[in-house]
Design a protein that fits this description.
The chain is mainly α. The protein has 13 helices and no strands. The protein has 3 domains: about 110 residues, MazG-like (Helix Hairpins, Orthogonal Bundle); about 80 residues, MazG-like (Helix Hairpins, Orthogonal Bundle), CATH 1.10.287.1080; about 50 residues, no CATH class. Helix 9 packs across helix 11. InterPro entries: MazG-like_dom, NTP-PPase_MazG-like_C, NTP-PPase_MazG-like_N, NTP_PyrPHydrolase_MazG, PRib-ATP_PPHydrolase-like. Keywords: Hydrolase.
Length: about 270
């Protein structure tokens, strides 16, 4: 491998993506690379890819633009890592990945890169986009309505996407009140399961309730994963406020009780609204 080493490229800070590709080739070199990087495969790297995508989303949510710059680089590294392994196996390369996504974007935007008119509503463009994607799935022998919804998505997001797909072919409640009625039904079944059924059956009923809650979000125009992230952030912010108020009294949560912490929680809420 010595004759293919390109040290000048490695240290050229203005070389862009070619520099990063060369860095990855060197890291994966069986003779001179990093032992840890050499050992990795698609399965071992996939969890890091998911983690980096979440860290990108987190930086955006916090509006931390310097952090986002770094996180986008980390996410780009994941693509470079997977494509390096694909190239080693003779499956694909970074260039073929770039070509495929470029072809896809051109094909999915005929109103920008083709002869179709741009004089369409956002709703019409979305409908056209879905028709193009359906044709692509048909070409991959993915004929089922729910085919192609990634198994590796977070379960709540996947529920949302599955229901969205089913709704396109008319399998959907017509009114949001119908969904709310179903939530009441599922909640009742969960309470009954808690009192009379096994833990496995309780888990099943709880899953049914969460699935319908995701559907309610779709009917309300709320993406449930984003809503839950926001709720998590709000809980952290308010609980931190409770801890800060306790600390001002020389106390910690373990020195307090539910009644006191609940009162402080209400104080934090009022302070946020004032």
């Amino acid at each position: 491998m010595a004759e293919t080493r390109n040290d000048a490229l490695i240290h050229d800070r203005d070389a862009g993506i070619e520099r990063l590709l060369e860095i990855m080739r060197r890291l994966r070199d069986p003779q001179t690379g990093c032992p840890w990087d050499i050992e990795q495969d698609f399965d071992s790297i996939a969890p890091y890819t998911i983690e980096e995508a979440y860290e990108v989303a987190d930086a955006i949510e916090r509006r931390d633009w310097p952090e986002l710059e770094g996180e986008l680089g980390d996410l780009l590294l994941q693509t470079v890592y997977h494509t390096a392994m694909g190239e080693e196996d003779g499956r694909f390369s970074f260039q073929t990945v770039v070509r495929n996504i470029s072809d896809k974007m051109v094909a999915r935007h005929p109103h920008v890169f083709g002869d179709e008119s741009r004089d369409k509503s956002a709703e019409q463009q979305t409908a056209d986009w879905e028709k193009i994607k359906a044709a692509e799935r048909a070409g991959k022998a993915q004929g089922g309505t729910l085919d192609g919804v990634a198994v590796g998505l977070p379960a709540l997001l996947r529920a949302y996407k599955l229901q969205k797909r089913a709704a396109r072919v008319g399998f959907d409640w017509p009114q949001v009140d119908d969904v709310i009625a179903k939530i009441t039904e599922e909640a009742t079944e969960l309470v009954e399961a808690r009192d009379t059924l096994t833990q496995a059956e309780v888990t099943e009923e709880y899953g049914d309730l969460m699935f319908v809650m995701a559907n309610l979000g779709r009917h309300l125009g709320v993406e449930p994963e984003a809503a839950l992230r926001a709720a998590n952030a709000k809980f952290i912010r308010r609980f931190n406020g409770v801890e800060a108020r306790l600390a001002a009294q020389g106390k910690s949560p373990s020195d307090s009780d539910l009644a006191e912490m609940d009162a402080l929680w209400e104080d934090v809420k009022r302070a946020e609204r004032s």
